[in-house]
Amino acid sequence: MMKVLLLIILFPVLVWAASPEAAIKGQLEYELKSSYLNSLEKIWGKCGSSPSSCLNLKDDYQLLTLPKKETCFPYTMCGFYNCMEDKYHCSDVGVNYFTQLAHPTCSAYVKNISDDKFTKAGVEWIYTVMVCLQKGLVDECEVKGNCNLDSQKKTCDHIVDFTLAYHPGCYINSGIGVCHLPMKDKTAIWKTVSPFLTNRERQEAYKVIFQCLIPAKTNS
Fold first, then answer.
1. What span, in angstroms and rounded, lies between the C-alpha atoms of 54 and 62?
2. What are phi and psi of 47, to 5 degrees?
3. pLDDT tens, 110-121?
4. What is the sign, positive or negative, of the torsion defined by CA atoms of 37, 42, 45, 50?
5. How many whole angstroms separate alpha carbon 137 and alpha carbon 166?
6. Cβ-Cβ contacts under 8 Å for 163 (sequence gap 6 or more)
7. Is 5 within a domain?
8. Is residue 92 part of a domain?
9. Is residue 13 part of a domain?
10. Which domain, by its residues, includes 37?
11. What is the full DSSP assignment across the chain?
C-alpha cells in the first residue's frame, strides 16, 4: 500500500523528468478544458457533461461546438491556424498570415523542440505563447466579433493587424517572459522565426527586443 501511495505522489515528478514537454502541454490543456472552456460556456451555452461532449479533434485542431457557437478552440497544436484559415479563407484574398507565417512558424517551433534546441524554460515559453496567441484570436474574432467586416479582404487585413500587435504582449508575458530566457533559447527563437518574417513582422520583433533592453518603468 505504501509503495502505491509513493508512486501516486511521485508520478507527476517522474513524468516531468521524463518529458517536460508533455507535462507543460498537459498543464495548459487542463486549464483550457476547465476554466477557459467555462468562460466560453457563459457566452455560448453549456458544453455538456464533459469537455469531450463539445470538443472534437478535426485533423490537427480542436473544434468547439456549443449551443450558440462553433469555433476553433485554442490548444497546444499548430493546426489551430489551419482551422482559422478554413473559416476565414484569407489566402483566397492574398492574405497569407495563417498559411505562410502562423502555421509554419508554430510548426518550426515544435520541430525545434523535438530537436532539443530549447531549454525547459524555453519549451514552457513556446507552448504558453502558442496558447496566448490562439486565445487572443478567439477573443478578438469570436467573442468580440471584430473579424466580420464588410469585405473578406478587410477582415483578413484586420486579423493580421491584430495578431502582429498582439504578439509582443504574449512574448513578453508568457512563461518567465522572453526577456528572461537563457541565451540558448533567445538564439533558437530568432533562428526559428527569422526565415518567415516580412519587414513588417521584423519591426514587431524589434519592438520585443527593445522592451527587453529597456524595460518599462514601474510606477513608484
1. 10
2. -75, -45
3. 999 999 999 999
4. positive
5. 9
6. 97, 102, 133, 136, 137
7. no
8. yes
9. no
10. 20-213
11. -HHHHHHHHHHHHHHHHH-HHHHHHHHHHHHIIIIIHHHHHHHH----SSGGGTEEEETTEEEEEETTEEEEE--S-TTHHHHHHHHH-GGGGT--IIIIIIHHHHHHHHHHHHTT-S-HHHHHHHHHHHHHHHHHHIIIIIIS-TT--SSHHHHHHHHHHHHHHHHHHHHHHSTT-GGGS-HHHHHHHHHHHGGG--HHHHHHHHHHHHHHHSPPPPP-
pLDDT (tens digit per residue) in 135-161: 999 999 999 999 999 999 999 999 999
Phi-psi region of 69 (alpha: psi -120 to 50; beta: other; left: phi over 0): beta
Pull the grid cell for residue 84. Answer: 482559422
CA atoms in the 13 A half-sphere facing the CB of 151 = 6
Q: Which pTM was predicted?
A: 0.86
* Residue 172 grid coordinates: 513578453
Look at residue 8 and tell me if it is in a domain: no
If we measure between CA atoms, which residue out of 187, 200, 215 comes closest to residue 119?
187
- The structural domain count of the chain equals 1
